[in-house]
């Protein structure tokens, strides 16, 4: 974690945590490598961050300790993991690793902890041995040795991380001889890291880890694998039956994936069976092979048809990726630039380009994409089904290319050129017609050039998650525009905590300009009858300047004009909706103030039925036991505006709302309420009012329940 004298290396788990080996920590502190005693928080470790031409330093302290435990064999050991907390977040240009499971045959790369680029050591994952995996490198290039321990093992094909380097295997008594251990090391794979951290109770650490399901697909049985390999051999024979031609393309393949040696000469080309096995073992090998093949068959229809058949076989295999190593790296590079410039662009483009698909979680649950989430999103989208082909008989346009076309249409000129070139090359390799790609680009240009009506209001619907997640809610979000149209932003897959919902609403509002390019300020929260008393206005929204400035976070009800809506009661009363419209249309400026303890639901019903038949506003005082039944009567009878103090203990607390002027100008009430909450912000007084407002706008109808027709 430093210069050439580094004790070892580490993997960045999140902006605030790194993972390394426990024996690396012992070495850095000058202790015995096998010491099991947990270092205290007073022991500070110097950490160096390395990037392309960039470096930084920081201080870390131990958080999770799993000391090394020697096995009886003496060759490998158990445990040996340490999670370190950084005193300050990692530099902005760093990226936490994306984990995947390690399997035999995976091409891997490690670097010395000093960070010098020239220290890379290539190796291949070998057999598994009770939670560890052996590694074997070629007898050329750098070898794993001192200073590599604790470092991430990068998958060369896609830049994910499959585990940590632990140690080099040293010769000793027994069957291991020096010539057997020249390039043999061993690692702790991600599967074991995950199990060990879970066993140590570090669930919060695991929650922060970015993980892709790449490599998690069920393994096929021997007969199925053999049948697939036979089909690949038949397809390859039509393209690479000539050994000389096969050797040329296998050299390009070896350079691309980096995990196999290239043929030494034309006579040492792999057999078709060997090549088929390699294409099934390396997830980007097929795409990388066809990348060199495609340009050589542009004017040969039969060869193009054979190549399309080979690619079609690849699409049937879960373990084979859509993009070549080069295509994947180029796409990530340009999308990182796009995300850094506008974190909201890719989620926004995905919602339009892939509108009929279930989006990956990072795109579905947030309005902004982080650099950390980008790698996993690209990997996930490679697995998505193909879209429309455009022409009968042509290859469909994959979801990832459609998204790239939409991102290109809305980004800066330099990134647009790169994305267009990338799409052209990938489409050419896959055999996608120019017409199909042009159609997707036309759709993207039309979307990017369209200027929607400004967002007038944000509406979010909350549903209690249930006993398995108390205090959490499922959340749906809509943008209501000035022209009457609405856009569904997302439906989160899992329950969220209140402050997570507050941050999500803020991020969405900030990405949706309102009138005059100012963000929309009105937020309606749709709840069920049992949730009318939840303090949504107090939920934190986070800081627009990021987590580094938590003191700038404001509650939802201070940042926006927040009101509640409860359409569920509307559906229980057939006349309620028409009553609400009539009360709004009557325009009666007064208000019904219920400040007498003697008023019960029957009396309130009679008041709203006759003398206050045209009243659009009711102010409720009293304790919750008195107030809640009256609130239900108001909503059932179509009263669109109801105000109350949810912290009031009795009618004697009625005066606490006086500064709000509850019977003043109705159209200014939401703004006065926002200002009232801001003035009381930070007050610890138990006497402070906690006003809640139902504001049911008849000009803003809510989305109803999904109506499904008989497919026949």
Question: How would the blueprint of this fold be written?
Answer:
Layout: E1 11-14, E2 17-20, H1 22-28, E3 45-51, E4 54-70, E5 77-86, E6 98-99, E7 107-110, E8 121-129, E9 132-136, E10 152-155, E11 161-168, E12 184-189, H2 190-199, H3 203-208, E13 210-211, H4 222-240, H5 243-257, H6 272-281, H7 285-293, H8 301-315, H9 325-341, H10 345-353, H11 361-364, H12 371-382, H13 399-410, H14 413-430, H15 434-449, E14 455-464, E15 473-481, E16 486-491, H16 498-510, E17 522-526, H17 556-559, E18 561-565, H18 567-572, H19 576-586, E19 592-594, H20 601-609, E20 617-620, H21 624-636, E21 641-645, H22 669-679, E22 691-695
Parallel strand pairs: 6-13, 14-17, 17-18, 19-20, 20-21
Antiparallel strand pairs: 1-2, 2-5, 3-4, 4-5, 7-8, 7-10, 8-9, 9-12, 10-11, 11-12, 14-15, 15-16, 21-22
Between the first and last Cα atoms, what is the distance in angstroms? Answer: 65 Å
SS-derived structural category = alpha+beta
Q: Roughly how much helix do the residues carry, as a percent range?
A: 25-40%
Reported for the largest beta sheet, the result is: 6 strands, antiparallel, barrel
Main β-sheet, spatial strand arrangement: 7-8-9-12-11-10
Count helical runs: 22
Beta fraction: 15-25%
Q: What would the average pLDDT be, to the nearest integer?
A: 83
Based on CA atoms alone, the radius of gyration comes out at: 31 Å
Q: How many extended strands? A: 22
Oligomer: single chain
Which spans have pLDDT < 50 for at least 5 consecutive residues?
176-180, 214-225, 388-392
């Amino acid at each position: 974690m430093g210069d050439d004298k580094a004790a070892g290396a580490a993997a960045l788990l999140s902006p605030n945590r790194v993972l390394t080996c426990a024996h690396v920590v012992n070495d850095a502190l000058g202790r015995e490598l096998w010491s099991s005693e947990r270092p205290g928080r007073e022991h500070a470790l110097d950490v160096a961050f390395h990037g392309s031409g960039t470096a930084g330093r920081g201080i870390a302290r131990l958080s999770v300790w799993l000391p090394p435990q020697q096995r009886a064999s003496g060759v490998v050991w158990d445990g040996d993991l340490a999670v370190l907390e950084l005193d300050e977040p990692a530099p902005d240009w760093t990226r936490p690793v994306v984990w995947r499971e390690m399997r035999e045959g995976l091409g891997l790369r490690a670097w010395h902890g000093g960070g010098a680029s020239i220290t890379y050591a290539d190796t291949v994952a070998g057999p598994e041995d009770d939670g560890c995996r052996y590694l074997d490198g070629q007898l050329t290039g750098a070898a794993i040795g001192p200073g590599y321990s604790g470092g991430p093992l990068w998958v060369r094909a896609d830049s994910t991380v499959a585990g940590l380097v632990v140690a080099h295997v040293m010769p000793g008594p027994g069957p291991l001889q020096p010539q057997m251990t020249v390039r043999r090391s061993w690692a702790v794979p991600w599967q074991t890291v995950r199990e060990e951290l879970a066993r140590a109770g570090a669930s919060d650490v695991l929650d922060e880890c970015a993980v892709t399901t790449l490599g998690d697909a069920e393994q096929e049985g021997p007969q199925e694998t053999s049948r697939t390999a036979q089909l690949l051999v038949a397809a390859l024979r039509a393209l690479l039956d000539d050994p000389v031609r096969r050797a040329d393309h296998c050299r390009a393949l070896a350079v691309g994936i980096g995990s196999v040696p290239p043929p030494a000469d034309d006579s040492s080309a792999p057999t078709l069976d060997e090549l088929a096995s390699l294409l099934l073992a390396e997830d980007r090998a097929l795409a990388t092979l066809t990348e060199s093949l495609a340009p050589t068959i542009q004017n040969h229809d039969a060869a193009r048809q054979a190549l399309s058949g080979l690619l079609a076989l690849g699409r049937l295999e879960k373990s084979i990726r859509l993009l070549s190593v080069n295509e994947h790296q180029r796409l990530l590079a340009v999308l990182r630039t796009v995300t850094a410039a506008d974190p909201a662009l890719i989620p926004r483009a995905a919602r339009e380009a892939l509108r009929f698909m279930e989006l990956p979680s990072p795109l579905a649950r947030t309005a902004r994409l982080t650099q950390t989430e980008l790698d996993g999103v690209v990997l996930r989208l490679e697995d998505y089904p193909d879209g429309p082909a455009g022409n009968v008989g042509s290859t469909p346009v994959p979801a990832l290319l459609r998204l790239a076309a939409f991102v290109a249409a809305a980004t800066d000129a330099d990134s647009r050129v790169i994305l267009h070139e990338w799409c052209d090359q990938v489409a050419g390799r896959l055999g996608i017609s120019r017409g199909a790609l042009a159609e997707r680009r036309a759709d993207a240009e039309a979307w990017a050039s369209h200027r929607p009506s400004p967002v007038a209001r944000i509406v979010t619907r909350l549903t209690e998650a249930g006993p398995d997640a108390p205090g959490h809610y499922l959340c749906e979000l809509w943008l209501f525009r000035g022209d009457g149209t609405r856009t569904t932003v997302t439906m989160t897959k899992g329950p969220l905590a209140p402050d997570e919902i507050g941050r999500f609403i803020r991020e969405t509002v900030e990405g949706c300009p309102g009138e005059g390019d100012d963000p929309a300020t009105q937020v309606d929260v749709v709840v069920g009858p049992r949730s009318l008393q939840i303090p949504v206005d107090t939920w934190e929204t986070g800081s627009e300047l990021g987590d580094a400035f938590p003191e700038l976070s404001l509650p939802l009800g201070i940042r926006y004009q927040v009101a509640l809506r409860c359409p569920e009661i509307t559906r229980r009363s057939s006349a309620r909706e028409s009553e609400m419209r009539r009360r709004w249309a009557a325009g009666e400026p007064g208000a019904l103030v219920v400040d007498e303890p003697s008023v019960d639901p029957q009396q309130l019903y009679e008041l709203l039925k006759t003398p206050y038949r045209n009243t659009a506003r009711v102010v409720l005082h009293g304790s919750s036991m008195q107030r809640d039944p009256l609130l239900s009567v108001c909503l059932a009878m179509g009263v669109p505006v109801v105000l109350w103090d949810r912290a009031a203990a009795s009618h004697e607390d009625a005066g606490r709302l006086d500064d709000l002027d509850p019977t003043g100008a109705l159209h200014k009430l939401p703004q006065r309420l926002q200002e009232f909450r801001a003035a009381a912000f930070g007050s610890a007084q138990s006497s402070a009012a906690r006003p809640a407002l139902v504001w049911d706008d008849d000009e803003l109808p809510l989305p109803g329940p999904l109506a499904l027709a008989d497919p026949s």
